[in-house]
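Tokens for chain A. Residues wanted.
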């Protein structure tokens, strides 16, 4: 069985790139606004748009990959990483809205992205070395 993810593979990369661009913008924004002051939710959504949109794309494509024989484990890894990043993002955003911040939520966002990277490495390994034919009755 070959695991040709084609367009799905590009969506994973697109979500990861959008996430990283969002992180870059967030870093830039924080350098311009050194002090923590409460931000209205509309401003927080705009500032963090790339992060949460990229993580959301990764969650959705992870769910899609769960439906592909041969890519289910990859989908679970990518989806779990995206969910972890979203949890970190939401926790961080809730604190920013009160003018506070703790490293745990920022770290959780990056830990989630680290899990996504593991999923991407697995996806690329499957792309280069597809698994042997799966016996009947097994899905992966």
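Reply:
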């Amino acid at each position: 069985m070959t695991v040709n993810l084609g367009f799905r593979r590009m969506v994973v990369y697109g979500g990861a790139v959008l996430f990283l661009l969002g992180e870059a913008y967030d870093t830039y924004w924080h350098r311009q606004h050194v002090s923590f002051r409460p931000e209205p939710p509309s401003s927080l959504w705009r500032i963090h748009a790339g992060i949460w949109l990229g993580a959301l794309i990764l969650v959705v494509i992870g769910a899609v990959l769960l439906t592909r024989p041969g890519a289910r484990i990859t989908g679970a890894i990518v989806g779990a990483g995206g969910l972890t990043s979203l949890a970190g993002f939401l926790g961080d955003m809730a604190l920013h809205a009160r003018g506070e911040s703790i490293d745990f939520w920022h770290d959780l966002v990056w830990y989630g992205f680290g899990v996504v990277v593991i999923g991407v490495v697995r996806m690329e390994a499957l792309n280069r070395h597809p698994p042997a034919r799966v016996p009947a009755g097994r899905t992966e």
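The helical segments are 6-32, 41-47, 49-65, 72-97, 103-128. The chain has a mean pLDDT of 85.
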